[in-house]
Each structure stands twice: as structure tokens, then as C-alpha cells.
């Protein structure tokens, strides 16, 4: 059964919601087959797919291209597509127009945008246009330069109050869910208990209404650094590496293709 906002919101305070990123059709198919509730087409594709240093270079066209492929593979999972840097920051009009472009171009069920109270007017306008919104507060990667790097947020009392204020603001503006990234578990739990909307944690403890991870991190796809909050559920990098090495060796030795694999 296709997940909807109604089925997801009904899980508030109950069984946690699972979310993974995907950026292409075959990965979306596998994630969907596994029964994962929601798929995020994250602007993290800038890092893990396109090879950029951060997410800032990702365009609306990139999100539509990858988002459409994912939506074609997700038969049951609820698909959320990120609004990339500068697709909503300039104005309310830009925000609504680009959210509409993403939804029409991909077939997704919701868009996600970073920022709290400062973008409440954008969230309100997008939701009033009939487009569901997932907000994103705490560590917001599109603001990496302003933040001075990828750091845990809401450590001081003032920062905690700001996070709570932002959470209330995005709820009031009409978001049906909010991502909490890299915040202490106790404050994430407090936000979750206070809000009526869903909270999706990433590096925010297990007190949220759901969890999201970048799939390459959790299956060991890249073989490189992974954040502290990531548990590796597999080690695909080593499996792929050994297969590629063995292929190269057999080609060099002319043992592949052999008679069995020839016409």
C-alpha cells in the first residue's frame, strides 16, 4: 500500500518511520522492496553521486532528474525531494514556483527545505499551494559556510531554545514533518513530544518519530569516513572492490570470457 501523509501521521508516537535516501531507479526499487516507509531524494546527491565537496552546487534540474527516477521505482514508499540551495531562499515566489516544478517534474509526494522561522513564509505559501512540506532544522548543510562546518547543534541553552522556536514555527507554517539533524538526543525528544507533526532524526537519538540515513553511509558503499551517528548495516564497498579486481585480473589473464560465457 502506498504510504501517504495520513498513514505517516497516524504513526506519531507509535511505530517509528523508516527513511533512506535514494538517487536512482534501481536503488529506489530495492529500498521499496525492503518495505522502507519513505525515500528522500536528498541534495546530498551533490556529495555522494556528483562528487561535489558539498550540496551547494546542486540545481533544481538535478533534483528533478534524480527525483523522477526514484519516483518511478518507489511503488509503496512515500517520496520526498529536497529543494536545493537558492531554489527557495530568494523569495516566496521562487519557493512556490520551484516546489511546483519539482513536484510536477518528479511525481513526488512532498518537498523538503532547510531552515526554520526565517523561511516560515515560504513553507506557508508552498503548503497553501497544495504541496506538502518537510522542514529541516538543526544542522542545515546548505548553510555549511555560515555555520563554519558540520557541527552538532543546540548544545547551549540559547541554541536549544532557538531550535524549539524554529520547530514551533515550521509546524505553525504548515509543515507536516521536520528533520532534526545533529542535535542532542534529549532536545530532539523534547521537540518530538512538544510537536503534533512528525520528527525525523538524523544524528538526533532514538526519541524521534522516524529516522533517516544516507544509504551509501549505512551500507559502506564509499568505504570512507562516515559520521558518528551512522551504523554500518553492510559493507558493499569491499564486495564491489573485490569483484572489480577479480574482473580486471581475469580479463588481463584471458580467463574471461571463457567457453561458458562465449557464443
Can you walk through the features of this model?
With 263 residues, the protein is α/β, with parallel strands linked by helices. Helix 4 packs parallel to helix 5, helix 5 packs across helix 6 and helix 6 runs parallel beside helix 8.
Give a short overview:
The chain is an alpha/beta fold and 263 residues long. It is 41% helix and 15% strand.
Which tags fit this structure?
263 residues, alpha/beta, 8-stranded parallel barrel, 11 helices, 8 strands
- The outline comes out as globular
| Helix and strand composition category | alpha/beta
Q: Helix and strand string, N-terminal first?
A: HEHEHHEHEHEHHEHEEHH
Q: End-to-end span in angstroms?
A: 44 Å
The tally of strands reads 8
The Cα radius of gyration reads 20 Å
Strand order of the main beta sheet, please? 1-2-3-4-5-6-7-8
Helix content: 40-55%
Compute the average pLDDT: 96
How many individual helices? 11
Chart the SSEs and their pairings.
Blueprint: H1 5-9, E1 17-21, H2 25-33, E2 38-41, H3 45-48, H4 60-73, E3 78-82, H5 92-106, E4 110-114, H6 120-128, E5 133-138, H7 144-147, H8 157-173, E6 177-181, H9 185-194, E7 198-202, E8 210-213, H10 215-218, H11 236-252
